[in-house]
Specification:
alpha+beta, Butyryl-Coa Dehydrogenase, subunit A, domain 1, Butyryl-CoA Dehydrogenase, subunit A, domain 2, Butyryl-CoA Dehydrogenase, subunit A, domain 3, 4-stranded antiparallel sheet, 3-stranded mixed sheet, 11 helices, 50% helix, 13% strand, globular, binds flavin-adenine dinucleotide
């Protein structure tokens, strides 16, 4: 029996309009230029300038602060498109998005008014910093510490792997403010540390905040990853996220909340890079001939393409589900963990299959897949490794299904 039903639509008209616009920008301005910036490991300043004009730094920032005021779902769709072009571009937006989320959710009115309008235009960009040389997964083991001295907090310590560490003007930094706290997470505070963008040795009000030369990486080039050295840096009490009274000791909880949306963001990046690898494989497999026919006509290659496309769609659906649940105000920690785990692992697998389909040419720098092959593994690590995602998923499953 036929049943009248609404046609299945993945995107609203508005979401389609904005993602079409971003896709066109990616096809015209990012994909043709990514090889150059990747090869030179150069910050893609002209692309970033165009992204500012398109408003892409203010996608989730409310309109009253100069942003577009869009939801996490639409943001995830945009991130997929940017990552399809080059994951380094989405990396420039990623930490900025987490910083603006932290401000929107936990900042005081004064903090929002002070920073969000310039963040919405991209004039002021944000990084976030948890990791240190001796820790990444074990966040409660942070050693960087702050001590109250007059009306400021003096911060000392070293941070590691800070994406946008040089070009950012604000770094949301997790610091120990009470070494005796038990459990340790209660003694951690998030400071909004201000500095001069692009300057490695800060002076004046920002003295004591230094950025060593960027870390050399196998992929994820163009966007810088840096250490940060705090050596007597004085952060005013008013820069404690949420205000000194309410924000002290809340840093761990605030950062973990932000990582939940960050995981949706990384999942969307996995979908984007996998989508691009699938497109490259579909094209190449119909062009390349072996044994008298296009390799796409060999069943082994078709099966690979089938598995790749299935993983891309499944990763996208998991990502959008997690985003939609968060937008609906529902708990989505389990779903965000699943999306991040599946989409990042699928991203790596789909890229590897596309690489195999390219045969020897996949190993050549003449082909885009070579860059994707170096870029994809980052997603297995950032915002919590796959092992950490499994820990989160397992713990949440048992909480939800306690007997
Ligand atoms: C390019 C890049 C950019 C980054 N950007 C940022 C950033 O902007 N801000 C930031 O704060 N950090 C950033 N990071 C750091 C990233 O979040 C950490 O690298 C990540 O959390 C893993 O930490 P780790 O490297 O210290 O590995 P470790 O924590 O030392 O882990 C090593 C291995 O042990 C496994 N492991 C750890 N604990 C357990 C356990 N309990 N059970 C089972 N296995 C376990 C891990 O999964 C991993 O396989 C970035 C990293 C990279 C590579």
């Amino acid at each position: 029996m036929a049943v009248a039903a609404q046609p299945y639509l993945e995107k609203t008209d508005d979401q389609k309009a904005i993602t079409d616009m971003v896709r066109q920008f990616v096809d015209e301005q990012i994909i043709p230029k990514a090889e150059h910036y990747d090869h030179e490991d150069e910050f893609p300043e002209p692309i970033v300038e165009q992204m500012k004009e398109l408003g892409l730094f203010g996608v989730t920032i409310p309109e009253e602060h100069g942003g577009m005021g869009l939801d996490l779902t639409t943001y995830a769709m945009i991130v997929e498109e940017l990552s399809r072009g080059w994951i380094s571009i989405s990396g420039i937006v990623n930490t900025h998005f987490i910083g603006s989320y932290l401000l929107m959710k936990f900042g005081t009115d004064e903090q929002k008014e002070r920073w969000l309008p310039r963040m919405a235009t991209g004039e002021l960009r944000a990084a976030f910093s948890l990791s240190e040389p001796e820790l990444g997964s074990d966040v409660q083991a942070i050693k960087t510490s702050a001590r109250k001295d007059g009306d400021a907090w003096e911060i000392n310590g070293q941070k590691m792997w800070v994406t946008n560490g040089l070009m950012a003007g604000l770094v949301f930094t997790l610091v120990k403010t009470d070494k005796e706290a038990d459990p340790p997470y209660k003694g951690m505070t998030c400071f909004v540390c201000e500095k001069e963008p692009g300057v490695s040795e800060n002076t004046g009000a920002h003295a004591g905040f230094n950025v060593p030369p960027k870390i050399k990486k196998m992929g994820y080039k163009g966007v810088e990853s840096t250490e940060l050295v705090f050596d007597g840096y004085r952060c005013p009490g008013e820069n404690v996220l949420g205000g000194e009274e309410a924000g002290l000791g809340q840093g761990f909880v605030q950062m973990m909340d932000a990582l939940e949306v960050g995981r949706v963001n990384v999942a969307a990046r996995g979908v984007g890079i996998a989508q691009r690898a699938l497109e490259l494989a579909l094209r190449y497999s119909q062009e390349r001939k072996t044994f008298g026919k296009p390799i796409a006509q060999h069943q082994a290659i078709q099966f690979k393409l089938a598995d790749m496309a299935t993983k891309v769609d499944a990763a996208r659906l998991l990502t959008l589900r997690a985003a939609r649940m968060k937008d609906a105000g529902e708990r989505s920690d389990l779903e965000a963990g699943m999306a991040k785990l599946f989409a990042s692992e699928s991203g790596k697998e789909v890229v590897e299959d596309a690489f195999r389909i390219h045969g020897g040419y996949g190993y050549s720098k003449e082909y885009e897949i070579e860059r994707l092959y170096r870029d994809a593994p980052l997603l297995l690590i950032g915002e919590g490794t796959s092992e950490i995602q499994r820990m989160v998923i397992g713990r949440k499953l048992l909480q939800r299904h306690k007997i």
